[in-house]
Amino acid sequence: MMSNLNARHIKCAQDQPMYDYNLTDAYYDSDAINPLDLITALFHCSDPFLLQEMVSKMSMCQFAVPLLLPNCDTHQSTLMLWAMRDLVKKFRPNSLAGDRIFVEGRIVEMDIPMVSFVRLGESSLPKSQTLNKLLSNPHQLNDTFVQRDMECGDVPRRISDGLVEVSWYLPCGNTNIDMFTQPVAIANLRGDGRLFKTQMSFLCQTSAAVFIFSDDLEGDLSTLNNRESRAELFLVTNSQRKAFNKETLRDACRKHKVKETNVIVKIKKNDAEFVKTLRVQVNGVIEQNPIKMRVKDMAAVAGRVGFVVDEDCTECRNGKANAEGITESIHDVVKFKEDQLPLHGKIWKRISQIEKERCRMRNVGKDIEKYKSKLKTEEAKLREEQQQKAFSDAMIKFTAGISESGTQRLYFLKWLKIQLDTHSRQNLSTLREQYKDYCRNTPQNKELIKCLDEQISNCSLGPEHFFRELCQLYECACSLPENNPARQKVQHLPALCAQMLLDGFPVELVDGDASNIPMKWITEVFTQLHQLVDTKSKILVLTVLGVQSTGKSTLLNTMFGVQFAVSSGRCTRGAFMLLIKVSEELRSELKCDFIMVIDTEGLKSSELAALDISYEHDNELATLVIGLSDITIINIAMENSTEMKDILQIVVHAFLRMKEVGKKPRCLFAHQNVSDMSAYDNNMRDRIRLVEQLNEMTQIAARMERREANNTKFTDVMDYDPDKDSYYIPGLWHGTPPMAPVNAGYSEAVYELKKSLIGSLQTSDNIKTNDVTEFLRWTQSLWNAVKFENFIFNFRNSLVADAYTDLCTQYNTWEWSFQSEMNKWLITKETMISNFGVAEKNVQINLLRTRLKEFLHEASKKLHEEEQKILSNLEKYFQQKDSKVSLVENYKQDFQTSANSLKRRIENSIKHSLEKAVEIREGMEKVNKIKDKLMDTIEKKVRELLKECRERNADLSEDGLTREFGKMWEGTMSELSAVRLPEVDVYQDVHHLLRADLRSKGGHVSEMVNTVDLKTSGQGEFLVKTDWFSLAKRCWKAFTHFHKRHLTAEIQENCDRIIRHCDSLISDHISVMKRNNTGYHETYIRDLLKAVDDQVKRHEQISEECATHLKVHVCGRAARLFQKTHKEFNVCNDPRSRLMELKPIFLENFFKSF
Ligand SMILES: Nc1nc2c(ncn2[C@@H]2O[C@H](COP(=O)(O)OP(=O)(O)O)[C@@H](O)[C@H]2O)c(=O)[nH]1
Ligand SMILES: [Mg+2]
């Protein structure tokens, strides 16, 4: 809703020529209306929630608002307490000026003294005009109160006599600007106070002082003699009128107990002196610690004098009572949240982490399946825990509250918000101050600041937390069987929420604190919504994105008259959506039934970003909401332009990596706080520069993703026209808040933005709106893509990501050369061990252990050298004078650590391999010994048997012989202790290496790699599929059939060649293994992956996706062959099996010798 300072300058009458009136005509057209009459009438016809909105807008314009609203029919006034309930103000009293602390709160609950101004009888002094001067800075006169000289200000009032308006003067803490150093409320009674005795009595009981404007000192001033009055009286009169008489003045003072010092007489024509005296007097009142009555306490007085209070209706009272039922039990916000709203706190955060980890697999060990099922079990357990804690007392009351119909629900929610605000505000304001203090003074102490950040988030409590809890109630019930009573209990909730969306209530889409979308809940809400509107649910999605506290919500509220929470009291993070119904006439033109507006909260400001180097949350949120929107307004305050550029880069980059993004989101830039009218022209250069930068980074991102061919400009990814889509919006306030009125230019500029936006939508053919079910599907798949994206969101911008990738590539070559060097060395040593003393007759096998020691010593020397090589390479890399290098300075330490752990890993593996080789060789030697021994035994046994047979003179049957041999064999075998050769699961190993290799690729790649089964991969032929290229080539669809076939054939041929190359590599490795009798090493797989990479680089038509399929194919083949070779190796090196192989030969010998 626009806020416009000129709103009260209205004239219903037809314009009359200014100087053309004749003496006989009435001066005024009978249609002319006094603005006060208009305001009174509007207040009478408005609904209670609109009233609140009107009051806050009026107050933003620094207009006075009705405190007591007269009703000329019933002659009964109403105290407008409810209307003012929502008014939140900030100020800084002089006493706190040094500490930079400000006071924030609901104005009706604040202890502010009220000073009233009334006229009794005639007064030649213009009261309202004087008040305006009293409250305004001399250089910036603001018409807080409607006054005579305003347009139609002198039209006779018809219904607004008896109206009492109020306005607040709030200091900003700067004595040069402040008119009063303490806050004060100024009330103004319209009409002759003598006729409004009740109003007078009310004011005398509630005010600290009453200033009476009167020339008619002899007249009836009996309204002043109020027994209940606590107010100090002041008399203001004009000495320049003819009838002025000092005696009468003195009499009047005596009669009505007005102190002589409390008489203000305007002596000169000039106003300045007079206003100054008045100000001194008012200041005197405020400083003497006067009675302060809160507006909400005035309700009692109103009741006593016979006024109505607008909160006195049943629905309002019930709403209040229902809300109090919940908030009464809050003593400690943190504890309350833990006890009463436990589902959406730690548990839901952990579930969200698990959900992401299930996609990203950051901490997976080698066994992926086991890890997956572990995560699944943990999630199921957490859901169970939620069910056990479900439906706390507060949540039962909350669900009851929102299940009420229409107005009562609105009252309930408003009351809840009001009461919760009060609870969390106090804690929050001190915490926030501390936070700012730490950020400013000890920014290096990140832990402390993080801790405070968490505390702030823990202490904040609003209705949104109850709604989050509601989502979780629903979500955890979803894992129960359909007919479970607990599940049926929550079945109706989504429909309720859908109805609230239709009523224009903001609903959370992304929970920014947990960084997750409650998908089951949202799905059901949208499904219900779709049914509620009879499937007429086409929506156009508009989002605003920007750093926190840059006026995003204010912008949307001004643009659409909606009510997104504006900064105060709020520190939840996330994205809220809200539906605006499109009118019948516009539906066909805009091609939609609703406009969905999404407001995002909590992108980090620069100070926060500097503290926390994790960019993940913001990048994810931004990518999601831009991806969901048809139009995104990028809100930029000058000082935050860098952050927004960085975030945009990541968003573009993420889009380039995603398979899911099909449409081109349109974006607009709203530059805030630019008030110069030549802004548009002056910023031409800036705009060009911005476009250049955006293009540059798109190119970088495209290069990284191997998509340069089709993405060379920002506008290839996003729809943006720098000339048409840039808006410059002047600052919101005209002067220094809190006393500054809104700048009329602000609303005008926002209105322009809206007009041209809607205009362009009407004429545009590009926008294809979806209905909510389609939107839902889209949200699901986009969110899935975001969850699987493991790499790009970690970076500040594409430049850093590019530099990082560059460093990784470098590092990988160093790592690879380290590994292959060590592997070569290892193979020679393994061969040496395996051949140890083979040719000698009497091997001294115990010497082998000494050799092993020597080898290990040599290895550790060599490993150290190789590690140093990497480290010095790294050092050299960082010494380059390249701007890229400076971007990744932060990561240097990581890579150093990584080199170190690589060394340790290889060291272990070498030790393990060498020891194994020694064991195998020792085993073989044992086998040899046993062989010899066996030969002896056989000879002996044969001799014995022969002897025995001769003695018994009996022949031994074949069976008997075999039995005898069997016994002997068993006996010998038992001497051979088993050497267990480890079974390596080559498939698992390869899978692990493959995942590591594809770590930095896009979400759909990780999704594929995490779910692929290598055992079935690479079995048949590798067939190139066309849909692997649609992503890389947006124009793919436009290719002719012939062209596509041609291209596919070419790619197929290249892939086949790569596969052949890899096959020959694999068989090379296998023959080395067989020749040298060595085991399988992971280096072989790394070699293969590197080979694929090298080859793919040469063929640029092979898309990222195709390359991944290729790698999976090759890895599947390799895993199968290596697994087989490994098995053979084990069999052939196991002494037992070796011996078993020899059994028939020995048996034959046995028979022969017999
Ligand atoms: N000086 C100035 N203040 C603004 C402007 N727009 C909004 N604000 C104030 O900045 C604060 C934060 O506004 P809000 O809309 O909640 O920001 P959001 O966090 O980006 O949604 C509020 O107190 C606004 O009154 C502006 O253009 N200039
Ligand atoms: Mg906001």
TrEMBL record:
<dbReference type="InterPro" id="IPR052986">
    <property type="entry name" value="VLIG_GTPase"/>
</dbReference>
<protein>
    <submittedName>
        <fullName>Up-regulator of cell proliferation-like</fullName>
    </submittedName>
</protein>
<dbReference type="Pfam" id="PF25683">
    <property type="entry name" value="URGCP_GTPase"/>
</dbReference>
<dbReference type="Pfam" id="PF25496">
    <property type="entry name" value="URGCP"/>
</dbReference>
<dbReference type="Pfam" id="PF25974">
    <property type="entry name" value="URGCP_9th"/>
</dbReference>
<dbReference type="InterPro" id="IPR057365">
    <property type="entry name" value="URGCP"/>
</dbReference>
<feature type="coiled-coil region">
    <location>
        <begin position="361"/>
        <end position="388"/>
    </location>
</feature>
<feature type="domain" description="VLIG-type G">
    <location>
        <begin position="536"/>
        <end position="780"/>
    </location>
</feature>
<dbReference type="GO" id="GO:0005525">
    <property type="term" value="F:GTP binding"/>
</dbReference>
<keyword id="KW-0175">Coiled coil</keyword>
<dbReference type="InterPro" id="IPR058641">
    <property type="entry name" value="GVIN1_dom"/>
</dbReference>
<dbReference type="InterPro" id="IPR030383">
    <property type="entry name" value="G_VLIG_dom"/>
</dbReference>
